[in-house]
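Need residues for this backbone.
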């Protein structure tokens, strides 16, 4: 027994429903409660409202993760936001050699899932043609590890020497920095060390894409830097917890660097 959606997603409930499991009588007894839950879900999706929900700071906060699959103007994912993501795809494809994704928590784990599912373990070993012109991906910023940070810099420095020798050009590296607060210690310290080191290497062209809180009134450190330096910006929105951030620009920016296109 299964339920198949128009998207092709299929949910098999063979081992959940039947005698000794969830029965028809069970469903009947919860019918009214399920209807109420369904109505509450509709309100949450439309307005982001859940009664008595507070942010981790104790303030009222909308809950918007359930809106993410529905692409409409005014939603977190909209035709205009997907067009903005397409601009990132168009830029990195056949133009950027490495993307260093810097994030922690959902901003690392979600992006790593996208990489593992779409790219596989040996993506960076594939020829450029087999990667369809998309860059190699390195993950950083999920902890303060000077050894790994130093190794990343050394690896990119050696890659730059090979590129200069074989292709007579500079290595092109994009730092994708993801931090809602714009000051996450692990992420921002790794970013600043790598950014400073790469800028000092003459064989590397380094650029930055900032993914942070879009609030203009209370600008994060990362947003201030992005405005000052003219870096492209994407949003870590309110109302979306880290476990769901893979479905907003936190995860979709990484997806744009390996597969997202056609919008």
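Answer:
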């Amino acid at each position: 027994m299964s339920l198949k959606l128009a998207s092709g997603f299929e949910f098999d409930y063979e081992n959940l429903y039947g005698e000794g499991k969830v029965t028809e009588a069970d469903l009947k007894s919860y019918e009214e409660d399920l209807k109420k839950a369904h109505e509450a879900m509709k309100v949450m999706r439309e307005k982001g409202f859940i009664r008595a929900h507070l942010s981790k700071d104790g303030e009222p906060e909308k809950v918007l993760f359930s809106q993410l699959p529905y692409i409409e103007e005014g939603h977190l994912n909209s035709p205009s936001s997907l067009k903005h993501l397409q601009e990132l795809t168009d830029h990195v494809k056949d133009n950027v050699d490495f993307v260093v994704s810097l994030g922690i928590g959902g901003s690392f784990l979600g992006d790593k899932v996208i990489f593992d599912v779409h790219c596989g373990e040996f993506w960076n070993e594939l020829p450029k043609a087999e990667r369809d012109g998309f860059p190699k991906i390195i993950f950083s910023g999920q902890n303060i590890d000077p050894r790994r940070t130093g190794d990343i810099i050394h690896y990119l420095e050696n890659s730059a020497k090979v590129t200069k020798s074989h292709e007579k050009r500079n290595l092109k590296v994009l730092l994708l920095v993801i931090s809602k607060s714009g000051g996450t210690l692990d992420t921002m310290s790794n970013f600043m060390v790598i950014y400073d080191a790469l800028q000092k290497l003459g064989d590397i062209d380094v650029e930055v894409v900032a993914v942070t809180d879009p609030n203009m009134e209370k600008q994060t450190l990362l947003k201030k830097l992005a405005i000052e330096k003219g870096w492209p910006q994407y949003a870590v929105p309110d109302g979306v917890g880290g476990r769901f951030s893979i479905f907003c620009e936190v995860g979709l920016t990484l997806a744009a660097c390996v597969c997202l296109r056609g919008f």
